[in-house]
Amino acid sequence: MSTDILTPEQRSRCMSRIRGKNTKPELLLRKALWAAGLRYRLGNNLTGRPDIVFPGKKIAIFVDGCFWHRCPQHFSPPRKNARFWEDKIARNVERDRNVDRKLQADGWYVLRFWEHDVRDSLDACVTQVQELVQGK
């Protein structure tokens, strides 16, 4: 039995509208960092395309979605087309690990925040970035 209330066409349209950059959690963090006086860069050619970069300090920040990156707290695997989604999410997680290793090997410090951390503990995220920027 399918638990999806949308038709396949409706679901496809919804999924196609999911953005990969300038997401709400990313914008929230960027605005808070800017308000705290931290100046960062967005456009970059670094491995993995970090969401926020402090090039002079070699700090790369990613804001990971709970579904797309398999958050241990909130990830709930889809029941429909389960094999496809398991493979897709597993590739995302493996890619994240590879990106972290590559950036660290190149001398970058990598910070990853879950979307729920940004939403629920924005001040703590900003403090963590501030401490890292000031300590480097």
List strands and helices in order, with pairings.
Layout: H1 8-16, H2 24-35, E1 52-54, E2 59-64, H3 82-105, E3 109-114, H4 115-120, H5 122-135
Helix pairs in contact: 2-5
Your description of this structure?
- The chain has 136 residues and is mainly alpha-helical.
- It has one domain: Endonuclease, Chain A.
- The protein has helices at 8-16, 24-35, 82-105, 115-120, 122-135, and strands at residues 52-54, 59-64, 109-114.
- Strands 1-2-3 form a three-stranded mixed sheet, with helices on both faces.
- The chain is globular, with a radius of gyration of 17 Å.
Describe the structure concisely.
By secondary structure, the chain is mainly α.
Architecture in CATH?
3-Layer(aba) Sandwich
The end-to-end distance, rounded to whole angstroms, is 54 Å
Question: What would CATH call the homologous superfamily?
Answer: VSR Endonuclease
Uncertain stretches of 5 or more adjacent residues: none
CATH topology name, in short, is Endonuclease, Chain A
**Strand portion:** 5-15%
Rg on CA atoms, Å: 17 Å
**Topology pattern, helix = H, strand = E:** HHEEHEHH
What class would the helix/strand composition place it in? mainly alpha
Q: Summarize the biggest pleated sheet.
A: 3 strands, mixed
